[in-house]
Amino acid sequence: MYQYLTLSPGEIHNLWTVLQFTVTTYLLYLRISGQFHLIVGLLCLFGFNLPETHHLYYLSSSFNDFWRRINIYWKDFIMKMIYYPVFIRLRNTAGTSTAIVFATVIAFLGTWLLHSYQWFWLRDSFPISATDGIFWGFLGLLVVINSLIEASSQRKPHKILTLKASLIHSAKTVIFFLFMSFLWSLWSSSTPANWLGIVSQWRHSSIGDFAGLAILLAALTVIGTVAQVAFRHKGQSPANAAWPMPPTAVRITVMASLLIVITLPSVTGSLGHGPENLITTLRQDRLNMKDQELADRGYYEGILEQRNFTSALWSNRANRPDDWVGLKRSDVIKYRQDLLQYEMKDSYAGNFKGTLFSTNRFGMRDKQYQEAKPAGIYRIALVGASYEMGPGVRNDQIYEAILENQLNAANIAGRNRRVEILNFSVGGYSIVQKSLVAENKIVSFQPDLVIVTIYSGDYERLEIHLSEIVQGNVPIPYPALRAIIERCHVHPGMNSKQIRQSLQPCLPDAAEWAFVKLKSDCMKHGFPLMVVFMPSTKDMRTKGAGESLSSLWDRALRAGLQPERVDNIFANYKMEEVEIAPWDSHPGVLGHRLLADGLCRLLLNKKTEMFENDHESASRQGDPP
Predict the structure, then answer these.
(1) What is the span of the domain harbouring residue 57?
(2) Span 515-541, mean pLDDT?
(3) DSSP assignment, residue 10?
(4) Domains identified in the chain, total number
């Protein structure tokens, strides 16, 4: 659910994506309830036959029904410790209705404060937020109303469900599930304004979208009705019926055996690396593509508003070392007040992501080079992002350093010439920032070839970069790029989620602008340009990775470029073999070696094209072409 179905704010643009956002946010609670079930199951193994902690709460048909079904232990605790003492004390003096109102209000206030206390116990902060207040206040108000209705109505003896009663019950269940999805997504949002900005995207929907939703809700109601009628002979509803399944012990044994079998290395290995990586994703807490891009830039460092217990963010922060921070929260970089935003410090030496990290006097994570190109050198400028910067590995283990050695061992530049690869890459850089590097930083080094790398996450990085530029009110000195952003109607007064969401339709145009700029600047200085689409460790498990690459490829072609592609060299390896850590998807030592091998093969195949116009450079250096 978290890895493949949750959406980033920028992906929400109509009624259906709003529904996907709200429903998947609500369904993520399955992880919490599942953990409760596992805990109770383990206790059962030791003779503690405890009752269930949750009971089919997604089939609730009212607020009181929901309160009785979800987190039953918590409900019992609140009822015994808060609700009943207050209710009994007030019933004889103020009346039953007043006692119900006050007891329910105090019970939900206690629930809110105790949830915040739990967070204080875990994270040393006591959050009191607007979304918490709205969620618990609104839920408590509706439970009060529901309780008063139940108290005023006479209880009727239990009857076998009629077709009409089944239809009404199904409709109430479907509508309540939809309502709780919206309310739960509000609770999971950082602010009410962020939530409103997201759900307001329903306005960009057609009549057909609303008709389709109505048909879907009607179909779900009919399915629920049929399911209830099927149990009519037992006088039960599906939510309480004894399903016609094998005994519990047999059912658990079969399911447990199946899980054990599919996780055996001999079985997963025979399925191929695609299914194997999928199973690994299900077994481990890994960030999805959206959260990984934000974590890479240090977005989540120090932010206490993240209360999304159901995402991998919690496990990511809990398992990683304390000094494993994102680039933007480290002391590796220095900030700028322009479109580039930040760059690496010159002559830096320190520890970053568990390994020694150093830069040369030009702020590159590379060896010391002369600015003026020496004789007998074929110089390549590599402009990329975090994969090329190489967090978590030593300088000599980065694929750029390995590739330089491979090309020289293959004598790609001739017997009397050596290849130098200058690494201008900085983690988190978007395609726009890469174009600025090509314009402003590589010219004095006079490269013979400029290689710019593109990954499936480049749209995500571009979205983050431009949203930060807008929110920081950073001047954009390029009229064409400024016009693209202005079409999105964004301004610094908007919150980051609203800005990112509004920028989404403009990202392909902004990427194309950057491709055009790259081509123009390299042609201006006579530098051959090679745009290379590289594989990512996240491609095989990331929703939409293929579509992002295809869109970026099309935009590169529209810009007049002839991009190249390195095949997915990670496909035959397990994720844990090529990544630096379970909490960080950047390539490790093996991953960098594979990247170097893939790019080396591409450059060797392009050797003739690389050197067919290089006779002028060779003649200037006194070497044979």
Answers:
(1) 9-160+179-203
(2) 92
(3) G
(4) 3
